[in-house]
Design goal:
The protein is mainly α and 391 residues long. It has 19 helices and 5 strands.
Length: 391
């Protein structure tokens, strides 16, 4: 399977400079002196789904639908790769044409065409036993369903190494340069695990050199001698599971701030005039914009409409009155969590009734704005009225 897992690459190839230098240099410099042929537009028409690939090909969307996962066809057919990944060089398929700069621009500026191009990339990654985990960053991982067989095919089929070079160059032409490093980083990590080692020379002499960033090329070359830091191997199933867990946690957190909206909502005007409903809306806005100091103060005209127990509950949450009668809540996660608890319990914490008598004597005592008084509650300023382990 192309080497051992002893922790070092086998000495299989020379580390000297190769004939690839001139080729990749021309690519990185944008093919100096090369001019467009304004009549050559077949690559653009192909990615606009108007033209079939040749020979014995199909429209790009049909290739994505019918050829995906057909590894025998993708391995043996030699006329599609030049269409899926056009570059500005002539390939082995004489029925395809080199990419023109105006075509690349046309594809890049057409969202549907670019979506098709990324789907072509997904098609080939799957063929190589890999998968695109993140379309924004280009992160690549093993395809846990097929990587063992498809890695072996990639190790043994050297014409696929040429295809990878073309894919990398085409990514650059479509301004997806940032996709190159994640793909090559994944391949390097797999080599250090004992896979894909017959591809080593192509990696060193062709794949890494077509990366345009000098810094990124240096990093990738360094990883050939010393492995990159360990990284969790992700797969789509794991990614979707984590995404679902994150969405579930988010829904549970949002439930806290929407609990007080339950009940009869038919009479909207009535709710708008209800003091508790107005207070609840105010507190929800406060939690949504915790850095807005103007939302952390309750004016007397609002306070005067609230029941005494609600005012006391607000004090229990950390609101402090100043000389003007304005209640203010200090900034901080603990204070906001107390407000959240207040909302969950329909504006009156479960134990606030027990504290009313203790706090009543202090209800008119003023404190410095944006400071929490501990005399009324007898507790630490950062402590919650109720214990709440929700994050």
């Amino acid at each position: 399977r192309g080497g051992t897992s002893s922790g070092k690459f086998p000495v299989m190839f020379s580390w000297g400079r190769s004939s690839s230098v001139d080729d990749v240099e021309r690519y990185r410099r944008g093919y100096p002196g090369k001019k467009d042929d304004p009549k050559a537009n077949e690559n653009l028409r192909f990615y606009q789904n108007e033209l079939k690939s040749k020979p014995k090909g199909d429209y790009v969307e049909e290739i994505h639908k019918k050829w995906y996962g057909d590894y025998r066809l993708l391995e043996r057919h030699h006329g599609y790769i030049q269409w899926l990944f056009p570059i500005r060089e002539k390939g082995m398929n004489w029925e395809s044409q080199p990419l023109q700069m105006f075509e690349a621009k046309g594809i890049r500026e057409d969202p549907k065409a670019m979506k098709r191009f990324v789907n072509s990339y997904r098609l080939m990654l799957d063929f190589y036993g890999m998968t695109l985990v993140n379309e924004r960053t280009g992160e690549v991982a093993r395809n846990t369903k097929n990587y063992e067989d498809q890695y072996e095919n990639l190790e043994e089929s050297s014409h696929n190494w040429l295809r990878v070079t073309r894919i990398l160059k085409s990514l650059g032409e479509m301004e997806l340069e940032h996709y190159k490093k994640p793909l090559l980083e994944h391949i390097i990590r797999e080599m250090w695990r004992g896979h894909l080692r017959p591809c080593f020379r192509s990696l060193k002499d062709y794949w890494i050199p077509v990366v345009k960033s000098v810094e990124e090329r240096g990093t990738l070359m360094a990883w050939l001698k010393s492995p990159p830091q360990p990284k969790e191997i992700k797969c789509p199933a794991e990614t979707e599971k984590k995404k679902a867990e994150a969405e579930k946690a988010k829904a549970e957190n949002e439930k806290d701030t929407t609990e007080c909206e339950k009940g009869d909502t038919a009479d909207v005007d009535s709710k708008a005039n209800d003091p508790k409903a107005r207070l609840a809306a105010f507190l929800r806005e406060l939690l949504s914009n915790p850095d807005d100091a103007t939302l952390r103060s309750l004016k007397p005209e609002i306070l005067d409409q609230l029941d005494k127990d609600v005012q006391i509950a607000l004090r229990n949450c950390g609101f402090c009155a100043d000389d003007a009668g304005i209640l203010s809540l200090p900034a901080g996660e603990k204070a906001d969590e107390q407000v959240r608890s207040l909302l969950v319990s329909s504006l009156v914490p479960a134990d606030s009734a027990k504290r009313i008598e203790d706090v009543a004597g202090e209800s008119k005592t003023s404190a410095a704005p944006m400071a929490i008084s501990t005399e009324a509650t007898g507790q630490d300023p950062g402590a919650s009225v109720e214990s709440d382990d929700r994050s």
